[in-house]
Amino acid sequence: MNTRGHLVGVALVAGFGLAIWQFMQPEDEIARPAPTSMNGPAQGAPIVEVRLPAQLSPEATIGKRAFEAKCAECHGANAAGQDGVAPPLIHRIYEPSHHADEAFQLAVRTGVRAHHWSFGNMPPVDGLTRADVQNIVRYVREVQRENGID
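and the corresponding structure tokens:
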């Protein structure tokens, strides 16, 4: 067998080994909420408890209105998530060091492939400008800080 054949064989074996290794890894329990049972919360119930700041900045107040109009249908009131529908944004997964503000812009513009949660893919959101999303992010960040996420 020539060198090229050996390289292809090694690559195939390595790829197969990597696939088996990934399959054998335990699931990330933080990333997937426990499935609801018949006695669990109803679909659409808030996933996390959210404390609201005593006062929002003017930009966050505008963002809250935009969030309620465009995002709350899935992400729930005050971004608490909805069981069986969409994740909470008031969660350490969405802290600024892990999901920068630009990640929210991209999510609204192009949608998001499911990767942290098992709710499915997020579609793009029509009707929001870049400034609208900046205000929504300002709202989410202020509520996150009130809940110890910064």
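(Above: one complete record from the training split.) Residues 3-24 form the longest helix (22 residues).
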